[in-house]
Amino acid sequence: MALNIKKLLVSQPKPASEKSPYFDIAEKYGVEIDFRPFIKVEALSSKEFRQQRISILDYSAVIFTARTAIDHFFHLCEELRVTIPETMKYFCMTEAIAVYLQKYIVYRKRKIFFGQTGKPEDLVTVIAKHAKEKYLVPVSDVHKEDLTAMLDAKKINYTKAIMYRTVSNEFAKDEKFDYDMLVFFSPSGISSLLKNFPDFKQEDIKIGCFGPTTAKAVKDAGLRLDVEAPTPEAPSMTAALDLYLKKELGGNKKNGK
Predict the structure, then answer these.
(1) Residue 136 pairs with which residues in a beta bridge?
(2) What positions does the domain Tetrapyrrole biosynthesis uroporphyrinogen III synthase occupy (predicted)?
């Protein structure tokens, strides 16, 4: 009746809320869950940014796709001693991202716009109404091109500015890596696993992942994918884990374990 999976590694930061479904799974199945991101985001230095020959004050509007982009944009402005004028317009992928701007600016005094659905096409519709602006798009060194492709289609005047990068989170030499299951959320997480453990052999270790690009990265690395989300039955990673563990527990009961 015992589970073969006793210890899981989830490659994300530990949830801030004790109400996270991960904690329910740990309690329900008596498994240990460690949270350890395989990747981390780090800022570009002002020197590195200057090499792109971008002058922030040449732009009349900024497009933010994530809170991380907001943090790195304002930190870089501070480092470069750039004072953003009150006339600057901000276009955000969602209202939640727009509200996050309050951390750096007086929200009610600024021109702030956001998409209603969180989809890039919705934000681009809003941007197209302000087609005369000159837009700056802060991005990571690895980023999706769907938004910029839509901006191109609408002939929007924009420039991508790399302000932060995704790097592998190093594991200490003496750090234990004794997990029965690893859960990933991005292709860079898989790259980091193989960088940290070049001799990694999967054998009985189960691998779970979220999203089709991560699933492809698992298979491209020659690894076996055991748990996948989202699916119609499991829209979230925690739902997929719950289903998998329930199934394994049921199978082990039948086998008399």
Answers:
(1) 62, 159
(2) 26-238
